[in-house]
Design goal:
The chain is an alpha/beta fold. It has one domain: Purple Acid Phosphatase, chain A, domain 2 (4-Layer Sandwich), CATH 3.60.21. Helix content is 30%, strand content 23%. The protein has eight helices and ten strands. The chain has helices spanning 21-33, 52-60, 71-77, 89-104, 107-114, 152-158, 230-237, 244-253; strands at residues 9-14, 38-41, 66-67, 119-125, 128-133, 166-169, 176-182, 185-191, 206-214, 217-224. The strands form two sheets. A five-stranded mixed β-sheet has the order 3-2-1-9-10, with no helix packed on it. Strands 4-5-6-8-7 form a five-stranded mixed β-sheet, covered by helices on one side. β7 (176-182) and β8 form a beta hairpin. It starts with 8 loop residues before the first strand and ends in an 11-residue tail after the last helix.
């Protein structure tokens, strides 16, 4: 069992599952050992993976978990592939995959996924807030994000109007804890992603832990989970997914399939 301070409230967060069941199993087993007070899943349950219906149903059956909706979730359930103009050949292929993903979900699952909130704020003690969103606090990830290439100062400029002690997100598929200066205090920005596949060169699934220790003190960390990815990579290669070999390559390597054209 993970160490717990005497007075604390522990949040565990993970995101970007993308229809990958064994990866989720590994992360959930590690999170259980953290003994969290609250688990938060930060969006993108579906898309880029062969078993979206199983992921959604698992989350529907666990109402104690808080869910934030992700941009790919909405691409699927709102059939945005029929109205959005693809920005690249990669996104055009993604839209075809989202249409196929939609077909694997039933109406109840689509309705449930659609109604999850864009963001949520937690206040373990008055005056000390923790804000969670999928990509940014002002955009779900279709128009803006916090990619690896941005400096802390550049992200700080984007967050200058958001006065939370800690913020957490997913979306960019590479976990981190950043310290952002703003409004006369240091804020922490935590990326929990990703469960399904990473794009930062480390193929291991990840999650984040945010501890509130009282009196405005927070401790944030990200963890990687050991996972034998080969069987799941092969499953993706041989699944119904268009270009399943690209998904398999990302699961194996921890890198985006086309690193010269990152999606964020």
């Amino acid at each position: 069992m993970s160490y717990r301070p005497k007075f604390s409230y522990r949040y565990c967060l993970y995101s970007d599952i993308h229809g990958q069941i064994p990866n989720l199993d590994a992360v959930e087993a590690a999170v259980a050992k953290e003994n969290p007070d609250k688990i938060i899943v930060i969006g993108d349950l579906v898309g880029l993976g062969p078993e979206p219906e199983k992921i959604v149903q698992r989350m529907m059956d666990r109402p104690e978990i808080d869910l934030i909706v992700g941009n790919v979730d909405l691409w699927v359930v709102d059939a945005m592939y029929d109205t959005m103009v693809p920005k690249s050949p990669h996104q055009e292929g993604m839209f075809r995959m989202m249409k196929q993903t939609h077909a694997r979900l039933n109406e109840e699952q689509c309705t449930w996924l659609r109604k999850n909130p864009f963001s949520q704020t937690y206040t373990p003690e008055q005056g000390h807030d923790f804000h969670v969103f999928h990509a940014t606090p002002y955009d779900i990830g279709d128009a803006d994000a916090f990619p690896f290439r941005l400096t802390d100062d550049e992200i700080g400029e984007k967050l200058k109007d958001y006065n939370y002690d800690v913020m957490a997100h997913g979306h960019i598929h590479g976990p981190s804890v950043r310290h952002i200066q703003g409004d006369g205090k240091m804020k922490q920005l935590v990326c929990a992603a990703a469960v399904g596949m990473s794009w930062d060169g480390d193929p291991r699934p990840s999650y984040a832990v945010v501890d509130y220790l009282g009196e405005g003190k927070w401790e944030c960390r990200v963890e990687r989970v050991e996972f034998d990815c080969e069987e799941q990579a092969k499953f993706n290669e041989n699944s119904w997914i268009e270009h399943g070999e690209r998904i398999a390559g990302m699961i194996r390597s921890g890198n985006f399939w086309n690193p010269d054209h990152m999606p964020h």
